[in-house]
Write a structure and sequence with these properties.
By secondary structure, the protein is α+β, with helices and mostly antiparallel strands. About 60% of the residues lie in helices and about 15% in strands. Helix 6 (about 155-170) crosses helix 9 (about 200-215).
Length: about 260
């Protein structure tokens, strides 16, 4: 199954419907003038013509309804056709995709496909519509908007440093020790209502922009560096300035030498 086939069919019917609608509006304007002038002979003819137009519109509406009803969206999802076509559209839009059905990472978004209910989620938000071409465009537009948004790498580095210092105290670690970035995220957004406004994907995106910026120190002069770890389960996946994936696991802040 391919939604684009249904799309082409519906667009053709919608064009015919629009043409009939324009004709109906033109006929209505003529009826208004004839009523105003008392031109009953032509008014009767125009009303008959309008009746024919309305019948054609009714038939077109039924054709649209039948076309929509003939598309088995449940089979479309469960067969894997929807997911395959979405990935194809993402490739055309040069969207980096990681993961396997039903969950894909399209940085900084997490896309989940609920085949049973024919729903698609972007992070926690349920998206409307199941046209792969439109969904891919929506994801691409969202990524472009985020990339164009202003970002103060210096301020973010300071906020990250403050969370780091708190983490050092909380975990009884020595200053300069590596701390998991996932732990710092929980300190930056300690309550669930905060995490709704600033979720883990948004945190990963900010980390990516800090990483890409090339900044290596805070306003106070403390330097920092990201680190790796064998505990890949705590890694945060980002895309660098070249579109290549990187995995950030830890960070440490230390005085400048």
């Amino acid at each position: 199954m391919n939604y684009e086939e249904l799309y082409a069919q519906l667009k053709g019917l919608e064009k015919d419907f629009r043409d009939r609608l324009n004709a109906a509006q033109k006929s209505y304007r003529a009826i208004e003038k004839q009523t105003e002038a008392g031109d009953l002979k032509n008014l009767e003819k125009e009303l008959s013509a309008l009746s024919d137009i309305c019948r054609a519109q009714t038939q077109l509406t039924e054709s649209l309804r039948e076309a929509v009803g003939s598309f088995d969206s449940k089979a479309y999802f469960e067969s894997g056709d929807f997911a395959a076509q979405l990935l194809e559209c993402c490739a055309q839009d040069q969207i980096d995709v990681k993961g396997e059905f039903p969950v894909y990472e399209m940085f900084p978004y997490r896309i989940r496909i609920d085949a049973e209910n024919q729903d698609v989620y972007q992070n926690r938000k349920k998206l409307t519509g199941i046209r792969p071409r439109a969904l891919s465009g929506l994801i691409k537009a969202g990524q472009d908007k985020l990339n164009k948004a202003s970002f103060n790498d210096s301020s973010f580095a300071d906020e990250l440093c403050a969370a780091y210092d708190l983490g050092i105290l909380k975990n009884g670690k020595k200053p300069g020790s590596d701390l998991y970035l996932t732990s710092l995220y929980k300190l930056l957004a300690p309550m669930s209502r905060y995490r709704r406004d600033y979720d883990a994907n948004a945190f990963a995106f900010d980390l990516a922009r800090l990483y890409i910026s090339g900044r290596e120190e805070t306003k106070s002069g403390r330097r920092f560096q990201f680190g790796s770890s064998r505990d890949i389960g705590k890694a945060i996946r980002i895309l660098d300035q070249y579109g290549k994936e990187q995995y950030l696991v830890t960070i440490c802040f230390y005085p400048a030498q």
